[in-house]
Amino acid sequence: MELTPSAHLDTFARDRLPPPDRWPRLLFDLPELAYPERLNCGAELLDRTVERFGADRPAFHDGEGGVWSYGDLQDRVDRIAHVLTSDLRVLPGNRVLLRGPTTPWLAACWLAVMKAGAIAVTVLAQQRAPELAAMAEAARCSHALCDAHAVDELLAARIPGLRVTPFGGEGPDDLLDLAARRPGPYPAVATAADDVALIAFTSGTTGQPKGCVHFHRDVLAVADTFSAHVLRPLPDDVFAGSPPLAFTFGLGGLVVFPLRAGASAVLLEQAGPKQLLAAIERHRVSVLFTAPTAYRVMLAEMTQGTAPDLGSLRRCVSAGENLPEATWKAWYARTGLRLINGIGATELLHIFISAADGDIRPGTTGRPVPGWQARIVDREGGDVPDGEEGLLAVRGPVGCRYLADPRQAEYVREGWNVTGDTYVRDPDGWFRYVSRADDMIISAGYNIAGPQVEEALLDHPDVVETAVVGRPDELRGQIVVAYTVVRDGVPRDASTAAALRAFVRARLAPYKSPREIVFLDALPRTATGKLQRFRLRHDPSGRPA
């Protein structure tokens, strides 16, 4: 594929894109995906939105009662962009590491990096020095904007050549103090639509994270497909959610989608289930983004305590991991709201299979989002008949492009992104999740999908969360092991394990029942809340009951 002449003076990222023959085939069939050659997503999300809706509308709520209007946001973004280019000498194409909790200031920094034509590498505030060093080295970050309360760990990483500028602290060198001295407005750099806008690192659920390279047009494409056609936000919507901005699920749901629609978002430094429930009531949140586990915990909170007022909610999105049918039904029974399930990937930026409203079928993920295609293939890339399990392959306006990583050849095959998920396509076109391909357990010749066993266990009232994996076994090849967290007061002993195994056998074929149940205080998860099954497979902890 021929790339447009770049506006980047630093071509590091473009030079390390995969060879064109390793790219997936991209689709731009929808008229709204016909972007011009010159496109700056920061300007589109902010400046164009101000032009359409005005500067006085709320853009961000800080969770403490403070509100930034679109005019406030535009002024602060432009001042930060001036600091980047004038004080810090950031050049178009330089990689700028962003670190901090989810706040309006972090979002403003991301938008300023976009407008300045640089490349954002947003990392988690919870990540430690070795992780930060690895990502900064892989992306060759030259600058960092870091929340003053999170700067110590970044400095401890001792990243060569990295110029760190704190924000939200004290002193004349703080970014916010520098920005206050700079004038606005800031004319956005005329980046190419296919100039790199961000490098997002995968969450590490399978080991070493990979750097996923996305263009300016990609940022808008996920808003103009999933958000516009499935979520369908309104300018008066108030968004909130748990995923951090370093997680592309959060970047889309809390910054890109609301700004593209002229709506507002509540950005919470702490966004656990209790904080989300309080924020929904306090800010009259109408669009919620979080993971299935959080919906389960919120249901438990609403059962145990005073029920909050959720009457403002009209859209609830679940992604990040599979949504069990039991969770969907419990949320619907409690709230009357139909959870919008979806599957996305850091490699593809956001959700590409989903359904809303009358299209929703509990227990399925949905259908390909407009602008996307999906099919089920075998390991050789051949089509699998409807109703049979195979690998999910997708393509659309955004595709996987790893930063100088040989694993590109594993993810992109014959023009399709092969996500590593096992799915079934129903004859009428709905896609149903089975498991991650590496979560399929083969025991005594039987194929057992771990998530199916998890769903059965989650129906038990004593089970808070569970993860089912295969453990090598000399006799059977593998056995089914369920790592399980039970509610407080339930004994973690052989009698409870036997009861849970019997519960599963009453719902599934007996060979699918766990041979072992290991009780844990908590399941291993990434900082973004995604389950790390590989840690259970390769480094199990706890004693079986």
Explain what this protein looks like in three dimensions.
It is built from 16 helices and 25 strands. It is an alpha/beta fold and 545 residues long. It has two domains: 12-425, Rossmann fold, CATH 3.40.50; 444-538, ANL, C-terminal domain (GMP Synthetase, Chain A, domain 3), CATH 3.30.300. It has a nine-stranded mixed beta sheet, with helices on both faces. Strands 16, 17, 18, 19 and 20 form a five-stranded antiparallel beta sheet that branches. The chain has a four-stranded parallel beta sheet with strand order 4-3-5-6, sandwiched between helices. Helix 2 packs antiparallel against helix 3, helix 2 (41-53) packs across helix 4 and helix 3 (70-87) packs across helix 4. The chain is globular and about 70 Å long.
Give the helix/strand layout.
Elements: H1 12-15, H2 41-53, E1 58-61, E2 67-69, H3 70-87, E3 95-99, H4 104-115, E4 119-123, H5 129-139, E5 143-147, H6 151-156, E6 163-167, H7 175-180, E7 196-201, E8 211-215, H8 216-231, E9 238-241, H9 248-261, E10 264-266, H10 273-283, E11 287-290, H11 292-304, E12 315-318, H12 325-335, E13 340-344, E14 351-354, E15 367-368, E16 373-377, E17 389-395, H13 408-411, E18 412-413, E19 416-425, E20 431-436, E21 440-443, E22 446-449, H14 450-458, E23 463-473, E24 477-486, H15 494-505, E25 516-519, H16 533-538
Parallel strand pairs: 1-10, 3-4, 3-5, 5-6, 9-10, 9-11, 11-12, 12-13, 24-25
Antiparallel strand pairs: 1-2, 7-8, 13-14, 14-15, 16-17, 17-19, 18-19, 19-20, 21-22, 23-24
